[in-house]
Structures are given as C-alpha cells and as structure tokens.
Amino acid sequence: MYTHEKQILQAGKLAAHAEKAVILLHGRGSTAQGILSLQHHLHVEDALLLAPQATNNSWYPHSFLAPVAGNQPALDSALELVDTVVVEAIKLGIRMEQLYFVGFSQGACLTLEYVARHANRYGGVVAFTGGLIGEVLDTSNYQGDFEDTPILITAGDADPHVPMYRIAESVATLRELGANVKMEIYPGKPHSISADETLLANDLVLS
C-alpha cells in the first residue's frame, strides 16, 4: 500500500490572470502530464490548470467497486491530495464557483467521490467514465449542497470498468445533494475520451 506524495503540475494561465481553475485527475496507469493534454480539446484557455500526480500512477490499488477498506490508505491519501489542490487554488484567489474538476476513469471516480464529500457551488464537474466509490455507497460520507452545480458523467454502455448501475446510483446521489447532473451514455464506446464527450463537456460545463 502507498500514500501519495505531493506532486502537482501547473499549466495554463497564471492565477492572477485566470478566469477559473480546473483540477484534472488522471486515470490508472496514466500521468498528470497525460491528462493535461485535454487542454487542447476543452474550453480552458482562460484557466489555471492543476493536475496532481498519483504515486505509482494509481490513485488506489483495486477496483472502485471493491470494499473501501481494501483501497486504503491510498484512497484517503488521494482525497487529501485533491483537497490540498483545492486549498491551494483558493489561496491563489480562485473562488469556489470558479473551480472546476475534470477526471477520467479512476480519476473520474476520485473526482466524483471528492466533490460528493465536499458538495459546494463549484463552477462545474466533468467525470469521463466514472462513478462514486465503494462496494456499497456510504451516503453518510456525502454532505453539503451543490446549489445547482453542473455535473456531467459520460460512459460507454458496456464499459468493462464502470457498470451502468453505479453510474445511475451516482447520478441519484449527486442530485440529492443539489447538483444539476447530466448523464450521457454512448453505445459501444471504448474506455477512452471521445471528441463528442469533450464537446459536451465544453457545452454543458466549461463554456
């Protein structure tokens, strides 16, 4: 087991000139540098981009559907690292409603888990193929009010890692916390981010 070192890549605008900040969380086996390449496809020209790096390129060791205890202490450490990034963005003068989250796969699961535990009026949240974490969702972990924050969750209809039932549970839970959730499911889509998904993220969340 491992905990995460504080490694945060920064790109885009300097905070003093940024209209918003976007926290990008990479998938299992990937890198902060890799997820930052999304900046070429998303409406983030005016944003400070912050991408933490998972130690050993993985946020937690097992499936997000495994019992939470089996993913500790890595999961709690990952959530703490995301919180560190949020705190640093706010210290740089970014307001909560200027703060956006974008994650893919394991990073999308971590994104949704973090924001559900800290529901607030954010700028918006994009989860490319992800859902809330745990064998069974412990809704006592989730608190706050999204105040109509737009959240987009996308996935393929037969994704090998993220089943439809968990996406549905996640959508319901986030809506109960006051989020304006849009779910888009693509027939036969592989485990990747498509051009259509980035266009949808731009239209619904990042515009």
Name its key features.
5 helices, single chain, 207 residues, 29% helix, 7-stranded mixed sheet, alpha/beta
Q: How many distinct beta strands?
A: 7
The parts where pLDDT drops under 50 for at least 5 residues are none
Distance between the termini: 39 Å
Shape: globular
Q: Strand sequence of the main sheet, in spatial order?
A: 1-3-2-4-5-6-7
Query: What does the average pLDDT come to?
Result: 96
Question: Which range best describes the helical content: under 10%, 10-25%, 25-40%, 40-55%, 55-70% or over 70%?
Answer: 25-40%
Radius of gyration: 15 Å
**Helix segment count?**
5
Q: Classify the secondary structure makeup into a structural class.
A: alpha/beta
Beta content: 15-25%
The profile of the biggest β sheet is: 7 strands, mixed
- The ordered string of helix (H) and strand (E) elements is EEHEHEHEEHEH
